[in-house]
Every structure is written in C-alpha cells, then in structure tokens.
Amino acid sequence: MAAKLLDGKALAANLKEKIKNEIQGLKARYGAAPKLVSVQVGENPASEVYLKSQRKNAENLGVEYHLEKLDAAATQEVLIKTIDKLNKDKNVHGIMIQMPLPKQIDAKLISRYITPLKDVEAVHPQNMGEIVFGNAKILPCTASSCMELLNSIDGLKLYGKEAVVVGHSEIVGKPLALLLLDKFATTTVCHIATGERGRLQEFVKNAEILIVAVGKAGLIKGEWVKEGAIVIDVGINRVEGKLVGDVEFDKAKVRASYITPVPGGVGPLTVAMLMKNLVEAYKIQASLFKA
Ligand code: NAP
Prior knowledge:
The chain has about 290 residues and is α/β, with parallel strands linked by helices. About 45% of the residues lie in helices and about 15% in strands. It has two domains: about 30-120, Leucine Dehydrogenase, chain A, domain 1 (Rossmann fold, 3-Layer(aba) Sandwich); about 140-265, Rossmann fold. It contains eleven helices and eleven strands. Helix 7 links the parallel strand 5 (about 160-165) and strand 6. The protein starts with a strand and ends with a helix. Bound molecules: NADP nicotinamide-adenine-dinucleotide phosphate. NADP nicotinamide-adenine-dinucleotide phosphate binds near residues 192 and 215.
C-alpha cells in the first residue's frame, strides 16, 4: 500500500481563502481590520522565518500587523508592561510573544500576562484549561493543525480509534491528546520515559492514528507503523541540509494509509491556524464591545 499524502499546503490555502473572506466581512461590519501584534525580545535567527511568514500572511489576508521589538537586555518587567499596554489597546486584537525569550525572562510566567481574549497562540492557562472542558474557541496552532489534517480525511471517524501521540510538550503533545480525547479517540501519550523503558515501538505498533511531535529525526522506524495507520509528523529536523520529520518517511509511507510530508504537512497550516484564532479573538472582542 502507498499512503496518500496529507497536503498541508493545499489545506492551508483553502483555509486562508475562507479567513480572507471572513476578514473582509468583519471589516465591512465593524470598520476595522483585526490587528495582530508580535512581540520580539532581541534578535533570533530561528524566529526570522516565522516572523516573515506572519507578516506576509497578514498582508495577504488583510490583517493589520505590527512587530514590537524590545532590546535583548529588556527585563521581565519591561516585557510585562509592554503586554499590559497591548492588552488595554482596543485596536489590538491578538498578541503573541516570539520564542525563544532571553534567559532573564520566564516564558511560562509571561504567558499568564496576555489577556486570554487576545491570546492567539492559546498559551494562557485559561485557554489551555478550556480545552479540558471542550469549550476552547482559541486553540494552540500546531495541535489544531493536526486536527485539521485529520478532519480533511473523508469519512474518518476518530470515535474509538487507537490514537498515539509521541511527545508531551505544552504547545503540541498535551493539548493534542486532549483534542483527540474530546473526539473519543482512545488516546495514549508517549514521551521520553516511554522511550527509556523501551516501550515506544510497542505503543506505536498499535496506533491507528499516530502523531509524532518530538524533534528527533528517524525516531519512529518505518516498520513500526501499523498497516493502514494515519501518520502525522510534526517534527522538523535539519539533516544534511534537508528538512525531515521524526518518522522514517519512505519506509512508513508504504505501510500507512495517509501520511504528512515534511516539509509541506503540518507546517504550512500553523500560520493559517494563527490567523483563524485572530479572527475568533476579534469576533469575541467585537461582540463584547457591542454589548
Ligand atoms: P519539545 O517541547 O522539545 O517537546 C518534545 C517532546 O518529545 C517532549 O515531550 C519530550 O519529552 C519528548 N521526547 C524527547 N525525546 C523523546 C523520545 N526519545 N521518545 C519519546 N518522546 C521524546 O518540542 P515541541 O515544541 O513540542 O516540538 C516538537 C517538534 O515539532 C520539533 O521538531 C519542532 O520543531 C516541531 N514543531 C513543528 C511545528 C510545525 O508547525 N510543523 C510547530 C511546533 C513544533 P520530555 O520533555 O519528557 O523530554
């Protein structure tokens, strides 16, 4: 069997078209475009690609975009004050903090200062908590990208399916596991300790839905993949100048029914999801303001 590719680029293009139209409608109704502010502390080459993509996507979709740059030596207090100013600014609808932050700043603490209504990356504990109750309007972008890829598979029912998530980070693995549970998938989360006990292969072999978000090239051997499994590879690794995921793609694709390529799978969807969150945040703020 040769797996069908889950084309994140095409899905993202479709989604962005819908977002663009919705933004036009919101502009006509409320008289202003959604505004996204990205806060960056210091320079970081790793963030540049993402920042460029944010700006380009914002331009294409009719979003007002501003990059607020703080000095690399900025204190935590200065960053909190900046966030507070943006929280209070009625013309700003979405706030995101560029990672990584310099050592003097505690990223986990900072996420608590963004007002949940403007938290377009869903890093605030309140937005994370809403996922537990199945009420979240704003979802972590990478986790929701994985769900979007699953939703794109015609006729797929997650109800009762064996889903395995490898990686338990706060931005990907943990929220994703909750989103899968919400759809009644029988969800197992594997992490470093699973690997250390030598049990990763056993869990992966049972997965009808396998989602891997670790950041280790070749961690998941192709022959571990269950025949007919759906494989979503979130990992991004640079090997000999090429981008690859965490799953051995060539070997896995002959066993899987669907698989995401890297690049071109999850990646292109994440910015689209960010913009979807911004639109959601705008709508919530517009309705509150009206009331
Ligand atoms: P992270 O915070 O470093 O988390 C990695 C997770 O993998 C941790 O839960 C870690 O467990 C676990 N892990 C490490 N070694 C393992 C092993 N041998 N077996 C099983 N689990 C293991 O990374 P992240 O932010 O979630 O990102 C994961 C990957 O996805 C990275 O390659 C990143 O570049 C990529 N990513 C892609 C996108 C996209 O848009 N495509 C977005 C975000 C991230 P411990 O914490 O217990 O060590």
